[in-house]
Amino acid sequence: MYKIGYIDDYPTQYNNYRKKIQRRFPDVDLVLFDNCKTKEEFLERIYEEQADVLLIDYKMASTYGFNGSTLINYINDQMRDLECFILTGVDQDKVDDGLVAERNRYSKDIFDTEGDDEEKISRFYNFIGVLIQSADVFRNRREQKKEEYLRLYEKRKQGELSLKEEEEYLRLYKVLSSYGMIESLPEEVLTGEFEEKLDHLLKVGDAILEKYKGE
Predict the structure, then answer these.
(1) What is the pTM for the complete model shown?
(2) Using one digit for the tens of pLDDT, what is the confidence trace for 108-158?
(3) Domain 2-140: homologous superfamily in CATH
(4) Whole-angstrom Cα distance, residue 143 to residue 121?
(5) Around Cβ 104, how many Cβ atoms within 10 Å?
(6) In what order do the strands lie in the sheet with 53-57?
(7) What are the residues whose beta carbons fall under 8 Å from the beta carbon of 17, sequence distance 6 or more?
(8) Largest CA distance in the chain
(9) Domain ranges of the chain
(10) What values do phi and psi take at 96, rounded to 5?
Protein backbone atom coordinates (compact mmCIF):
# COMPACT_ATOMS: atom_id res chain seq x y z
CA MET A 1 0.00 0.00 0.00
CA TYR A 2 1.31 3.42 -0.98
CA LYS A 3 0.58 6.26 1.45
CA ILE A 4 0.17 9.76 0.05
CA GLY A 5 0.12 12.38 2.78
CA TYR A 6 -2.38 15.18 2.12
CA ILE A 7 -2.00 18.62 3.73
CA ASP A 8 -4.63 21.34 3.23
CA ASP A 9 -5.93 23.92 5.70
CA TYR A 10 -9.42 23.58 4.15
CA PRO A 11 -9.63 19.89 3.13
CA THR A 12 -13.23 20.08 1.90
CA GLN A 13 -12.45 17.87 -1.10
CA TYR A 14 -10.31 15.33 0.73
CA ASN A 15 -12.89 12.52 0.84
CA ASN A 16 -13.73 13.10 -2.82
CA TYR A 17 -10.05 12.96 -3.83
CA ARG A 18 -9.46 9.84 -1.76
CA LYS A 19 -12.41 8.00 -3.31
CA LYS A 20 -11.29 8.92 -6.83
CA ILE A 21 -7.83 7.55 -6.18
CA GLN A 22 -8.95 4.33 -4.52
CA ARG A 23 -11.54 3.62 -7.20
CA ARG A 24 -8.82 3.35 -9.82
CA PHE A 25 -5.76 2.65 -7.64
CA PRO A 26 -6.80 0.39 -4.73
CA ASP A 27 -3.19 0.08 -3.53
CA VAL A 28 -2.88 3.86 -3.05
CA ASP A 29 -4.29 5.63 0.01
CA LEU A 30 -4.61 9.39 0.49
CA VAL A 31 -4.04 10.18 4.18
CA LEU A 32 -5.19 13.51 5.61
CA PHE A 33 -2.74 15.21 7.99
CA ASP A 34 -5.24 17.00 10.21
CA ASN A 35 -4.91 18.52 13.68
CA CYS A 36 -1.41 19.85 12.92
CA LYS A 37 -0.51 23.51 13.46
CA THR A 38 3.26 23.78 13.09
CA LYS A 39 5.92 22.57 10.68
CA GLU A 40 7.28 20.31 13.40
CA GLU A 41 3.88 18.69 13.91
CA PHE A 42 3.52 18.02 10.19
CA LEU A 43 6.98 16.42 10.18
CA GLU A 44 6.08 14.17 13.09
CA ARG A 45 2.88 13.18 11.29
CA ILE A 46 4.92 12.05 8.29
CA TYR A 47 6.85 9.71 10.56
CA GLU A 48 3.69 8.47 12.29
CA GLU A 49 1.85 7.73 9.04
CA GLN A 50 4.97 6.46 7.22
CA ALA A 51 4.06 8.55 4.19
CA ASP A 52 5.76 7.73 0.86
CA VAL A 53 5.03 11.06 -0.86
CA LEU A 54 3.20 14.31 -0.02
CA LEU A 55 0.53 16.50 -1.64
CA ILE A 56 0.47 19.96 -0.07
CA ASP A 57 -1.89 22.85 -0.71
CA TYR A 58 -0.05 26.06 -1.60
CA LYS A 59 -2.20 28.75 0.02
CA MET A 60 -2.09 28.01 3.75
CA ALA A 61 -0.39 31.12 5.15
CA SER A 62 -3.61 32.62 6.56
CA THR A 63 -4.10 29.50 8.70
CA TYR A 64 -0.58 28.35 9.56
CA GLY A 65 1.60 31.39 8.95
CA PHE A 66 3.50 29.65 6.14
CA ASN A 67 2.56 28.50 2.65
CA GLY A 68 2.94 25.05 1.13
CA SER A 69 6.27 25.65 -0.56
CA THR A 70 7.81 26.91 2.69
CA LEU A 71 6.59 23.76 4.43
CA ILE A 72 8.13 21.62 1.69
CA ASN A 73 11.44 23.43 2.14
CA TYR A 74 11.36 22.64 5.87
CA ILE A 75 10.38 19.00 5.38
CA ASN A 76 13.11 18.39 2.82
CA ASP A 77 15.69 19.84 5.19
CA GLN A 78 14.79 16.95 7.50
CA MET A 79 13.83 14.28 4.94
CA ARG A 80 15.76 15.03 1.78
CA ASP A 81 14.47 12.06 -0.21
CA LEU A 82 10.74 12.49 0.45
CA GLU A 83 9.23 14.05 -2.68
CA CYS A 84 6.57 16.69 -2.14
CA PHE A 85 4.08 18.14 -4.63
CA ILE A 86 2.26 21.46 -4.47
CA LEU A 87 -1.47 21.68 -5.24
CA THR A 88 -2.91 25.04 -6.27
CA GLY A 89 -6.57 25.90 -6.00
CA VAL A 90 -6.96 27.67 -9.32
CA ASP A 91 -4.79 28.22 -12.36
CA GLN A 92 -3.96 31.81 -11.43
CA ASP A 93 -2.33 30.75 -8.16
CA LYS A 94 1.33 31.64 -8.54
CA VAL A 95 4.10 29.63 -6.91
CA ASP A 96 6.88 32.07 -7.64
CA ASP A 97 9.14 31.80 -4.57
CA GLY A 98 11.52 29.40 -6.31
CA LEU A 99 11.16 26.68 -3.66
CA VAL A 100 9.29 24.08 -5.73
CA ALA A 101 10.14 22.97 -9.27
CA GLU A 102 7.42 23.42 -11.88
CA ARG A 103 7.22 19.66 -12.46
CA ASN A 104 6.13 19.29 -8.82
CA ARG A 105 3.24 21.73 -9.11
CA TYR A 106 -0.30 20.71 -10.07
CA SER A 107 -3.67 22.41 -10.14
CA LYS A 108 -6.36 20.74 -8.05
CA ASP A 109 -8.39 20.30 -11.23
CA ILE A 110 -6.15 17.28 -11.87
CA PHE A 111 -8.77 15.42 -9.79
CA ASP A 112 -11.55 16.49 -12.18
CA THR A 113 -12.49 13.17 -13.82
CA GLU A 114 -16.24 13.76 -14.01
CA GLY A 115 -18.07 12.81 -17.17
CA ASP A 116 -15.46 10.17 -18.06
CA ASP A 117 -13.61 12.68 -20.23
CA GLU A 118 -10.76 10.61 -21.69
CA GLU A 119 -8.25 13.47 -21.67
CA LYS A 120 -8.97 14.31 -18.03
CA ILE A 121 -8.81 10.67 -16.99
CA SER A 122 -5.50 10.27 -18.80
CA ARG A 123 -4.08 13.31 -16.99
CA PHE A 124 -5.27 11.88 -13.67
CA TYR A 125 -3.70 8.47 -14.37
CA ASN A 126 -0.42 10.13 -15.32
CA PHE A 127 -0.51 12.22 -12.15
CA ILE A 128 -1.02 9.23 -9.86
CA GLY A 129 1.65 7.38 -11.85
CA VAL A 130 4.11 10.16 -11.02
CA LEU A 131 3.22 9.92 -7.32
CA ILE A 132 3.72 6.14 -7.32
CA GLN A 133 7.04 6.47 -9.09
CA SER A 134 8.17 9.05 -6.52
CA ALA A 135 7.05 6.75 -3.71
CA ASP A 136 9.07 3.87 -5.18
CA VAL A 137 12.16 6.07 -5.41
CA PHE A 138 11.73 7.10 -1.76
CA ARG A 139 11.43 3.46 -0.71
CA ASN A 140 14.53 2.49 -2.67
CA ARG A 141 16.49 5.37 -1.20
CA ARG A 142 15.43 4.37 2.32
CA GLU A 143 16.96 0.97 1.70
CA GLN A 144 20.16 2.61 0.55
CA LYS A 145 20.14 4.93 3.55
CA LYS A 146 19.84 1.90 5.82
CA GLU A 147 23.28 0.76 4.62
CA GLU A 148 24.67 4.21 5.41
CA TYR A 149 23.04 4.14 8.85
CA LEU A 150 24.60 0.77 9.67
CA ARG A 151 28.00 2.07 8.61
CA LEU A 152 27.64 5.09 10.89
CA TYR A 153 26.30 2.86 13.67
CA GLU A 154 29.49 0.80 13.63
CA LYS A 155 31.62 3.96 13.68
CA ARG A 156 29.56 5.30 16.58
CA LYS A 157 30.19 2.17 18.62
CA GLN A 158 33.90 2.86 18.19
CA GLY A 159 33.46 6.51 19.17
CA GLU A 160 34.73 7.68 15.79
CA LEU A 161 31.88 9.84 14.51
CA SER A 162 32.51 13.47 13.61
CA LEU A 163 29.97 16.18 14.44
CA LYS A 164 28.55 16.05 10.92
CA GLU A 165 28.31 12.25 11.07
CA GLU A 166 26.59 12.39 14.46
CA GLU A 167 23.94 14.71 13.04
CA GLU A 168 23.46 12.48 10.00
CA TYR A 169 23.27 9.39 12.20
CA LEU A 170 20.48 10.93 14.28
CA ARG A 171 18.58 12.07 11.18
CA LEU A 172 18.81 8.63 9.58
CA TYR A 173 17.80 6.95 12.83
CA LYS A 174 14.66 9.09 13.06
CA VAL A 175 13.56 8.29 9.51
CA LEU A 176 14.46 4.60 9.42
CA SER A 177 13.11 3.73 12.87
CA SER A 178 9.85 5.59 12.15
CA TYR A 179 9.38 3.51 9.00
CA GLY A 180 10.13 0.29 10.89
CA MET A 181 13.36 -0.41 9.00
CA ILE A 182 15.64 -0.57 12.04
CA GLU A 183 15.11 -1.42 15.68
CA SER A 184 14.17 1.52 17.86
CA LEU A 185 16.77 2.42 20.45
CA PRO A 186 15.82 2.86 24.11
CA GLU A 187 14.61 6.39 24.78
CA GLU A 188 17.34 7.04 27.34
CA VAL A 189 20.00 6.44 24.69
CA LEU A 190 18.60 9.22 22.52
CA THR A 191 17.75 11.71 25.25
CA GLY A 192 20.65 10.99 27.57
CA GLU A 193 24.14 9.97 26.53
CA PHE A 194 23.58 10.59 22.82
CA GLU A 195 22.30 14.14 23.16
CA GLU A 196 24.97 14.99 25.72
CA LYS A 197 27.64 13.88 23.26
CA LEU A 198 25.99 15.83 20.44
CA ASP A 199 25.72 18.92 22.63
CA HIS A 200 29.42 18.63 23.47
CA LEU A 201 30.34 18.38 19.80
CA LEU A 202 28.23 21.42 18.98
CA LYS A 203 29.99 23.42 21.69
CA VAL A 204 33.36 22.35 20.31
CA GLY A 205 32.25 23.48 16.86
CA ASP A 206 31.11 26.86 18.22
CA ALA A 207 34.43 27.31 20.01
CA ILE A 208 36.35 26.63 16.81
CA LEU A 209 34.22 29.11 14.86
CA GLU A 210 34.71 31.75 17.55
CA LYS A 211 38.48 31.18 17.59
CA TYR A 212 38.85 31.82 13.88
CA LYS A 213 36.17 34.50 13.65
CA GLY A 214 37.42 37.55 11.83
CA GLU A 215 40.51 35.88 10.37
Answers:
(1) 0.81
(2) 999 998 877 899 999 999 999 999 999 999 999 999 999 999 999 899 888
(3) Response regulator (3.40.50.2300)
(4) 33
(5) 17
(6) 28-32, 2-7, 53-57, 84-88, 105-107
(7) 6, 30, 111
(8) 69
(9) 2-140, 141-211
(10) -115, 20
